[in-house]
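Supplementary Methods S3. Input chains for the assembly prediction are listed below.
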Amino acid sequence: MTPDFRFSAEVEAFRDEVRTFLQEEMALAKVTPHGDDGDLTGLDEEFERRLVRRAGARGFLGISLPAEWGGGGRPASFQAAFNLEVAAHDAPLIDTAVTLAAQPLLAWGSPDQRAFFLPRIIAGELIIGIAYTEPDAGSDLGNLSMAAEPDGDGFVLTGVKALVTAAHKADWCLTIARTRPGVPPREGLTMFLLDMRADGLSVRRRPTMNRWTLGEIACNGVRVGPDAVLGRENEGWRQLAAAVATEGAGMFHIGFARHLFDSLVAYVTAAPGAAPLSDDPLIRDRIAALHGEIDVAERLAKRAIWMQENGADNVVFAAMAKVYATELLQRLALAATDIAGMDGMLYRPLFGPASSTRSRDGRFAWEYVERVHGTIGGGTNEIKRTLIAQGGLGLPRAPRVT
Amino acid sequence: MDLSPTPRQQELRIGLNAFLASPPSTGPDVRPLSQPGDDTALWSDLVAGGWVTAGFPEAYGGRGGGVGDLVVIAETLGEGHVPTPFHGAIVLCGQALLAAGEGDRLRALLSGEHTFTYCNWEGFEEPAERPSTVEATKSAQGWRLDGLARFVPHGAEADVLLVMAGVRLGGDRATPTLFAVPGSSAGLTTERVPTVGGDRCSHVGFSEVEVDVAQVVGEVGGATQWLQRVLAVGRVVLAAEMVGAAAAALAHATHWATTRVQFNAPIGSFQAVQHRLADAYIDVVTAQDSVYDAAGIIDRGEEDRVAAAAAAAKAYCSEACRRVTAAAHQVCGGEGIYADQPLHLWHRRVAALVPVLGSVRFLRAAVAASVLPD
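Predicted C-alpha cells for the full assembly:
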C-alpha cells in the first residue's frame, strides 16, 4: 500500500466518541457561567476539574498509557486524536498531567510514586504543573539555580520557578533543582515531585498579554522527604532530556488550526448584504494556501506519531511538527485578522458573559494574541531548529560559549 | 495509518539509484544541459532496463503497482537531475492510453518501441488555465488538425504525439478528443524553445495535418472521462520530481556546510546556516509527504479527494522546493553558482516544472473550490 495518512477506523471511532462527549460537555449553556479569562483554558477551576474527572470516568484520559496503571493501553494515535478533538472544542483537557507528567513517572517513578500518581492522573483527579524554567534559566536550562540542600533524609528547596502553566491551581508540580553545588552545569541536578501545599511554597500569578496567568513558584526552604525525588539523585539532566524528547507531536495544534480555519471560512462565506468575501480571488488564494498548510502540519505530526508507534526515534520529526504548526497558527491568526478588516480588531475572551456568543466574534484578535507564545513555549523554535539541523542533518555543534 | 513504502517501492528506489550510478550510464553527475541529445542513450537504457514501467499493469508490459511507484521513479530521477521524458512520455501518455483502453499503443509505449509525448492537454480543464489552441475537423480521410501547441516536452523528438484537439459535436463547446499523430506527419512543424530547465521543449504547429480514424485514441469526445484524473496523476508525479531535486540540493548544501571552513569552523556550525537548512529540511519532508499522501489517495481510489489533493501537493511542492534550492544556493555561496557544480541544475529543474500542468495560482484556485463555495 502506498503511504496512508488516515487514522485507522478504530481511532476514528474513538474520535467520534470523544467528539460527541465534547459537544455535550462544551455546550454554550454549560460553559458560559464558568468563563474565567484569568485561566489559560478560559474556564474556571470548578468547570475544569469536573470535566477532567468526567473524561477520566469515560476512559479518555491516558488512553495511550499502559493498561496496568489504568490507562487505555492503545497506540499513540489514540492520544493524538483525543488531543486534536479537545483542541478543536476549546476544552480544558490538554492537561499536562497526562501529556507531560505521566511519561517521566512511568520511566523513573518508584513503585509507590507510580501507584499514587498514575491512577489519579488517569482518573482526572490531579492537576500537575511542569516547573523546570527559572527566571535565569529558559532555553539554557543548565543555568538553573534552585537549590535542594540535603536535610536529614530529605532536602530543602530554595529558589524560584517561572512561567508555570496552571501553577495557581495545581495539586503537584514536577520540578528540577540542584542537589550538588560546584559541579558542571548539567551535573548534580535532581527531579522532584513537589506538593503545591507544602510549607514555604508560594505562587504569584502574573497575567500574560492575553489575560490568563502564568505562575511564578517561590520556594523558601520547602522541606521534602526522600519520596519526593523522582528517579535518581543527580541524574536530573539526563532524565529531563529524555522527558522532553518523549513529548508528543503536538496534535492539539492541528485542532486549534482546524477550528480557526473553519471560523475563517464561515466568516468569509457569510454574506451580510453584499457579495461574500469568498468571491474575492485574493482571499480564495490565501485560504487555499492555508488549507494546504494545515494538511501539511497534520501529516508532519502524524509522521512523528507513526514513528513513535513503530519504535523509531521521532525527536527530530516532533520538533519539525512543533515548529511548523506553531508558525502556521501565527500565519492563520494573522490572515484571519487581516481578512476580517475592522472586525479583526474585535477582541473578546473565549467564554463567559463578556462573550455574547462562542462564535468568531472577537475570536480572531484573541487568536492573534494567543498564538504568540506557541513558538516560545515547550522549547523555542530556535532551539528546535538547532535540534533539527544537528540531529536531523548531522550539522556540527557550534563552539560552546561558556 | 501506515507510512511505510511497499517492498516493491523500496526495491525500485534502490535499484534505480544503483542503475543511475552505474558506469554504463552517464550517471547522476553533472550533465551539460545545453546539448540536446546527450542523454538519449541514458533514456534508452532506462526503458530497455524496464525501470520506467513500474506503476503500469503487467498485462501491458508494466511491472505492476500504482502512482506510489511512479512517484518513486520521478523522485529518483529528480535527485539525479536526469532530464528524461518520463513525466510526459510515460506517465501522462501511459495513463491516458490505459484509461482509454488502448492496450496495443500502451504496449508499444512501455516496450520502448515508440516514444510518445502529450500535446495541448491543459486546454480542456474546467476551468482551463489556458484555452485549447488545436482543433480537429472532419476530412475525407478522417480528421484534419490545425493550430499551435506551445511548450510540448520532447515535441520534436517523439515518434508519436498524443494531441488533444477540440472537436465541435454540435454544441458551442469543443469536446476534447485525443489523436495519436506521428511526429513525421506532413503539415507538422516544430520549433525548439529554450527553457530554464534545459529540457527539450518545442512549440508544435499543425497545418492541415491529416489523420485517419484509426488514430483517434479511445472514442471521439471520450477524453472527458479520464482527463482530470490523468492530469492529477501527472501533477503528483511532477511534484515528486521537484521533491527529488530539492532533496538532492539540500543534501549537497548540507555536505558543503559540513566541510566548508570559515572563521576557523565549519559554516554548518553557525546558527544562521543551521536554521536555514533546518527550514529547508522541513520543506523537503513536508513536500515529500504531500506527494505520498496524494499518491495514496489516488491509489486507494478516493476519487472525491483526488483532484484537490493533487493540486494542493503540486502547489505546495512548487513553493517549498523553490525555497529549498534557493536556500541551498545561499549556503553554498559563490562556489554554488558555477556551472560545473550541480546545484544550479536542481534549482533550474524545479523552476522548469513549476508552471507545467498548472501554476501555483491556478492550482490554488482549484483547492479553494474544494473548500469554499464558487
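The radius of gyration of chain A is 22 Å. The beta strands of chain A are 128-131, 147-151, 154-165, 172-178, 189-195, 201-207, 213-224, 229-230.
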